[in-house]
Amino acid sequence: MLKRSKNAAFLGMFRLYTTVTATAVQPNPGAALPKKQRPLISCKRTQFHLYVPAPADSDFGTIPLATSGWKHYKSKDDYMIFNATLSKADIQSEMIDIEDFLSSNNICFNEKLMENLRNDLNIKAFTNIQTKAIPKVYDSHHVLIAAETGCGKTLAYMLPILQQIIERKQAQAEKINRKFNTPLAVIITPGRELAVQISRVAEKLCQHTDLQIKTILGGNTKRLMVNPEFADVDVLVATVGALSKLVTTGIYRMEEVRHVVLDEADTLLDDSFSDKLGYFLRRFPFYKNHTQDEHNVGTQLILASATMPTNTEEMLQKVIDVQTLHEVSSQNLHKLMPHVEQRFMRISKQSRPSNLLNLVKKDVAKKQPVIVFSNKSATSDFVDIFLNNNGVRSVNLNGDMLMKIRIGRFEQFQDGKYDVLSTTDIGSRGLDTTSARHVINFDFPLHVSDYIHRCGRIGRVGNLTPSVVTNFISSRREVEVVQRIEHAARTGGLLPNVNANIKNIINKRILKDMQAAGIEVPEEEAF
Asked: Where is the Helicase ATP-binding domain (predicted)?
C-alpha cells in the first residue's frame, strides 16, 4: 500500500493545471510572458513549463526536457501535460459548407447520396482534407490521402467513388448485366473491425439507391469457399487475406473493378502484408488512364492513412507509375493532435493498475467511454479481467481471439453496452470511436506511429467534446520514445521516426543485434 503522502501526490497528478503561475524558465529568457497565460506544456516542475516554442530547427538534446531525468527511479510521480491549443470554434472554422464546396468545384452528387449524408450521417460541412481529396478522387486520379486520424478520410474517397459507380451503372443500363460477385469497387482493409465500420458508412450512404455493398471478413473463408454466396455486388469491402483467397479460387471476379482503395495503407504496405498485397494488386490495370474509353479503361488506386511507411514508393512502383499519384496531405500530418490534451505520467509498473482504476472510475461516473491500450494480448486480457473484477464493465479485443469470439465486440462498446474497451494496437487503426473521450496507454507504445494512431481514437470529426490521452510511463524504453515526442512538442515540429513499417523495423533491429554478436547474416537477409 502507498503511504498517505504518496496518495496525495498521485491525486495531484490528475488535477487540471490551469492555475499554475507563469514562473517558468523559457527557451527565450528575454521574452515577456503575459500574466496567467496557460502554458503550452505544463509540468510538475514548473521550470519546465513552456509558453513559447523553441526554434523548429533545434536538434534533439539542445533544449531542456522535463523527461530528461525520467530514467532514474527517483523521477517516479513526475508528470508532463501537453495542453490542447485548438478550441471547438477553431475546428468548426476550418469546415466548409457542403453546398458552397460543391458549387465552387462544379461537382454534382446524386440527390440520395446527399440526403443520406445529411440525415443519416449528420454531416453538414466538409473538413479541410475532404475538400482537397474529393475533387482528385472525383476526377479519377490515383490519390494518396495522408492526413491525421479522425479527419474524415473515409468519406473523402467514398462519396466520389459511389457517385462514379452510379454514373457508370446509368450509362450501362441497357447493357448485359454483370455476373454475380463482380464488383465495380474494392476497398481493402487490414482488420475485420475496420471493414465492418467502412461497410456501415457505405450502407448508410447508399440507402434508397440501387448500389449493393458486400463485406468479406477473415476467419470464415473456408466456409465461403466450400459454400460460396453469389449476389449482385457494386462495392466490396474486405480484409486482404480473405479477399485474396476468394479471388484466387474464382468466387469473386475482378475484371470490372475500376476503383481499388487501400484503407489504413500504412499497415497494408507493411512487410507483414506487402508480398500478398503486391501479388493481388498486379492483376489490375493501374497503368492505364482511368478516363479512357470504355474498352480501354484502367483502375483507379486510392490510398488512405495517417502514417506512411518509408518504403511506400518502392512498394507502389511494382504496380503503378508513382509519378501519376496525386498526394493530398494535411498540415497536421505526423504532428501531435493540437485539440487533444495529452498527459504523461512517470509511475512504477506496480502502481499502474491502481492508477488505471482510479481514472476509469472517474470517467464511468461521468458516463464517458474509455479505451485502454496495451502492447500485448496477455496484458490486454489482464486489464479486462482486473477492471471487471472491480465493478467496471469492460470488453476485451485483441488479435489472438478467435473470430467467433471477437466479432461484434467493438460494436458492443460503440453501442454503450460496455464502459471500457481493453485492446491492443488492433483497435488503434481507423476505428471511428466517436463516443470515446479518454484514451489510456496502460503500456506506452514503442513506435511513434502507434502513438499517433492510438491518440486518433478520440477527438474525431463530429466529436468536439474535450478529449484526453493519459500515458503511463514505466520503463527506460518508454522514456526514450517520450523524450523524442516531447522534443517535437517543444519545437512544434514533426514527430520523429514515423515509420509505420513495424515488421521492417523489428527485423532490422534483430539483424543489427546478430551482426553485433558476430553472427553471420545471409546477404539476402541484410537490409
From this structure: 134-326
